[in-house]
Design brief:
Elements (H helix, E strand, L loop, with lengths): L2 H4 L13 E6 L4 H10 L5 E8 L8 H4 L10 H5 L2 E3 L10 E4 L3 H13 L3 E4 L15 H4 L5 H9 L4 E4 L3 H17 L1 E10 L11 H4 L10 H12 L2 E3 L2 E3 L4 E8 L6 E9 L6 H10 L17 E4 L7 H4 L8 E8 L5 E7 L3 H17 L8
Parallel strand pairs: 1-2, 1-4, 2-3, 4-5, 5-6, 7-10, 12-13
Antiparallel strand pairs: 7-11, 8-9, 11-14, 13-14
Helix pairs in contact: 2-13, 8-10, 8-11
Bound molecules: NADP nicotinamide-adenine-dinucleotide phosphate.
């Protein structure tokens, strides 16, 4: 059973119906493996299909996968066949967790949505569409309202919900707490991103060992834009971006899991002192609908007061990898406040975030359980 399943809150609403059948698309990759682990023992979902690329067709998952996680590969997954990613192969799944490369997702995810499947996607293919939410339920569960627009615009019976790029997720959580309390004007962010964020096999060992690579293709544009959509507002025309600006530098560093982002912010109403900012971060609560779900981060934000934390190796797995860890909160001599954020890139920033999104779709009645 995964760390998230182990950390389920006793107050988590219980489903009284049969488990909801789900598929994992791109199940052999870095994020796909996290899905297997997080869905092992999930109280609401049962995995009924695993997909891979054409070269995997017919292989058992246990034969095809190069398993990278420290928890063992669950026996039920090892025995499942890998099937090509197509609506007719999903074995009745109501939900599909997509860990597909973006170009593949662009083709396949709309086909599934049009057939009535709800796709919770990690891919960037549809994040920029105004009627597709970048959902982080602890921030913007209300953005599911655009899904009705999405269905009307596109004639889909299902839909597509994305989660953010893995660097934007922890950053956005910290920014949301500060925006609610003080109002954001400007954000300057420098990331130090784990190699698991590049998938498998990802970055060559000879490039990254003992090194820092100050370039990740397409990443800066995502980090400068996605938090503004995540903190934006639902309008009849889709989601309107929040009005603060972000400047981002993104770097790959030799860390296995956990992205670190150092951040400076200019605020509309600066806090009286650092303690007021820490209190705002620690007090942050998810919206009601997302507060007691199996994957709700508990707590949403942990603030470390030790001078040398957070560190990815020590802190990324806080709260089963769903909690955002903030530290080194202090005054900024140019703007108002600076701090460090650590977030687990393949859990909160990918598979765990998508499972949390699916839980919101269920609790809001968009995904129907089997009769
Ligand atoms: N890693 C992260 O931290 C992270 C965070 C947020 C978002 N994402 C996004 O999540 C997605 C997956 O990332 P990843 O890191 O898991 O990548 P990855 O390790 O490269 O895995 C990609 C997966 O997609 C499969 N695949 C490739 N072509 C396919 C096709 N035509 N049909 C079905 N499956 C196909 C691969 O299967 P085979 O084994 O058959 O090749 C593999 O299982 C990407 O869009 C990425 O940008 C990743």
């Amino acid at each position: 059973m995964s760390p998230i399943s182990q950390s389920l809150n006793p107050s988590t609403p219980q489903v009284s119906h049969a488990p909801i059948p789900v598929a994992i698309l791109g199940a052999t990759g870095t994020v796909g493996q996290r899905f297997i682990s997080l869905l092992d023992g999930h109280p609401w979902f049962r995995v009924v299909a695993l997909t891979g690329s054409a070269r995997r067709d017919g292989q058992r998952y246990g034969e095809a996968v190069h398993w990278l996680l420290s928890e063992p590969l669950p026996a039920w997954a090892a025995e499942m066949p890998l099937v090509p990613t197509a609506p007719e192969n999903l074995n009745g799944a109501a939900l599909a967790f997509s860990a597909l490369p973006s170009d593949v997702a662009r083709e396949i995810e709309p086909q599934l949505a049009s057939c009535g499947v709800w796709v919770c996607s990690n891919a960037s293919a549809f994040r920029r569409e105004p009627d597709v939410p970048i959902l982080l339920p602890e921030i913007n569960a209300d953005h599911i309202a655009v899904l009705r627009q999405q269905q009307a615009n596109r004639g889909w019976k299902g839909g597509i919900v994305t989660n953010s790029n893995c660097t934007s997720s922890g950053l956005s959580v910290a920014l949301k707490a500060l925006d609610d309390a003080f109002g954001l004007r400007q954000v300057f962010a420098v990331s130090m991103q784990a190699i698991s964020g590049a998938g498998y096999p990802g970055v060559a060992a000879l490039d990254i060992a003992g090194n820092v690579i100050p370039y990740i293709g397409g990443e800066e544009a995502k980090v400068e834009w996605e938090p503004r959509k995540i903190l934006g507002a639902v309008t009849p025309e889709g989601i309107r971006l929040a009005d603060f600006r972000i400047s981002a530098h993104t770097n790959r560093v030799p860390v296995v899991d956990g992205h670190t982002v150092v951040v400076s912010v200019a605020l509309k109403r600066p806090p009286a002192d650092t303690e007021e900012a820490i209190r705002a971060l620690e007090a942050y609560q998810p919206p009601e609908i997302a507060r007691d779900l199996p994957s709700t981060p508990r707590p949403v934000i942990v603030v470390r007061r030790d001078p040398d934390r957070p560190q990815p190796r020590l802190d990324a797995s806080t709260g089963g990898g769903m909690t955002t860890v903030v530290g080194r909160v202090r005054p900024d001599p140019i703007w108002d406040l600076k701090f460090v954020v650590v977030s687990h890139n393949t859990v909160r920033g990918a598979a765990g975030g998508a499972v949390y999104n699916a839980e919101v779709l269920v609790i809001s009645g968009l995904v129907a359980a089997p009769a």
